[in-house]
Design goal:
The chain folds into two domains: 226 residues, Metalloenzyme, LuxS/M16 peptidase-like (Cytochrome Bc1 Complex, Chain A, domain 1), CATH 3.30.830; 193 residues, Cytochrome Bc1 Complex, Chain A, domain 1 (2-Layer Sandwich). The chain is built from 19 helices and twelve strands.
């Protein structure tokens, strides 16, 4: 009997802890509902507006080839009618009456989200509007057909763009069998054939409160907001099993050798050249992600050794190195716009510069410290506009964690020259890559483009 008494006390304490509010920064407050929904409030009383954003850990990384693009399709259907309003027109009309602006949705590699901004005085109505769309979508057959047609037409336009074709070709080579798990836009054929049953399957796998975060930012009180969220979303039933335990995400297979693609198009008046590598991720090598950010900043300055070697020497009109922080292998990309008459020399110089990236010329103490300071300033500026800040918080919650984001500044300042060297040598220098070159058919024949990347 005594053991049972202590067990009840323990469970009560755990429940209390799960409801407790956590203050993360001066204007940032977090609470987790008993159903597992994480609620984050960003207080900003500068303007009488509030932005609501409900984000799920769902997206391309959960999709096999057979369902590639259906998460994005399902996400769009959340605004096409629900238990309260039968179709998109009724939904839009009601949203306009609430003063909602920026109503939108999005699906990326690692998250799917619905968001909008409205007058802060209409917060309760906004929460109910969001709740109806996300929890009780009608998935009307006519609305589904219209949405599929709109997506298909949009994708056809993108497919006609030669630069899209280059990115598509590189992506297929870079990710191989896991291509679908890195392609949020999806497969047009899969989307055109999508059924209501397939969309319900996605909902039943990932659209649960314990796989979501609700961020409310703006002219609101965190105490009052938590109470309103509890009223509206507290009855939402949690998933019994972690979806990523029941439906594990396969690991990305590493590149075994360098590869290349040459894409020819009569519309490619300006050649484009790209190199891609598999980079670090926040699950297995978080320290390298900070070094990646510092190195990218250094290289992207006009004074960098890479810019001097390519742009100031007259080989290219632009060059940029980027790393995308993700939970499942973030890509590193080097994008260059070479001058048509200098493509061969540009490719050779890029390959030369890659071998020099870990030298002191690239990584002076002054450059490293400047990069860390400027990245810190950039982050502060991103936090100044709350309607944008909620997007950053959603991204980091899904692709890393809130702890990762909130400790970013401290970890960034710890980055050393050796950390950056380790990152370069582990992920870039002498590592397999996928290169892509876009140019006209005439220029391809003239310069024998397929010979550029061969040993």
């Amino acid at each position: 009997m005594l053991k049972r008494y202590y067990l009840v006390i323990l469970l009560t304490m755990l429940a209390t802890c799960s409801r407790a509010q956590e203050k993360l920064k001066d204007n940032l407050f977090q609470k987790k509902l008993l159903n597992g929904l994480t609620v984050l409030v960003v207080e900003d009383h500068s303007v009488p507006l509030a932005t609501l954003m409900l984000t799920f850990k769902a997206g391309a990384f959960t999709e096999s080839d057979q369902v590639n693009g259906l998460t994005g399709l399902y996400q769009l259907m959340l605004s096409k009618g629900n238990k309260d309003r039968p179709n998109e027109m009724a939904n839009s009309y009601y949203a306009g009456g609430l003063g909602i602006s920026l109503r939108n949705s999005g699906t990326t590699e690692e998250y799917s989200t619905t968001y909008f901004t409205l007058p802060a005085a209409k917060l309760t109505e906004g929460l109910n509007f969001l709740n109806a769309g996300v929890r009780f979508p009608s998935l009307d057959a006519l609305e589904l057909q219209k949405t599929k047609l709109n997506i298909s037409n949009s994708m056809k336009q993108k497919e006609s763009n030669p630069y899209f074709a280059l990115n598509e070709a590189i992506t297929r080579h870079l990710w191989g069998a896991q291509y679908s798990r890195k392609t949020a836009i999806g497969d047009r054929n899969v989307i055109e054939a999508a059924t209501t049953e397939q969309l319900l399957s996605i909902k039943n796998k990932y659209y649960y409160p314990n796989n979501a975060i609700l961020i409310v930012g703006g002219d609101v009180s965190h105490e009052a907001t938590f109470k309103e969220v509890e009223k509206v979303f507290g009855s939402w039933t949690a998933s019994v099993i972690d979806p990523f335990v029941k439906y594990p995400v396969p690991e990305i297979k590493p590149l075994l050798k360098s590869d290349y693609v040459v894409v020819e198009s009569n519309l490619a008046n300006v050649p484009a050249l790209s190199f891609y590598w598999h980079g670090p991720d926040t699950r297995t090598d978080p320290n390298a992600t900070y070094a990646a950010d510092v190195f990218s900043y250094i290289v992207n300055q006009n004074s960098s050794k890479l810019s001097q070697a390519l742009m100031q020497s007259g080989l290219a009109s632009s060059v940029s190195l980027n790393y995308l922080t993700l939970k499942y292998v973030g890509p590193i990309s080097l994008s260059v716009s070479p001058f048509p008459a200098k493509i061969r020399e540009c490719v050779a110089e890029i390959q030369k510069q890659i071998t020099l990236m870990d030298t002191d010329d690239y990584l002076s103490t002054e450059k490293i410290e400047t990069a860390k300071r400027m990245l810190d300033i950039k982050k502060i500026r991103e936090e100044e506009v709350t309607s944008d800040f909620v997007h950053s918080l959603s991204f980091w919650w899904a692709s890393a964690s809130l702890k990762y984001y909130l400790s970013y500044d401290d970890n960034l300042q710890k980055v050393t020259r050796d950390d950056i060297r380790n990152y370069i040598n582990k992920y870039i220098k002498n590592k397999p890559y996928c290169a892509g070159l876009l140019l006209t058919p005439q220029l391809s024949i003239q310069i024998d483009a397929n010979s550029f990347f061969k040993p």
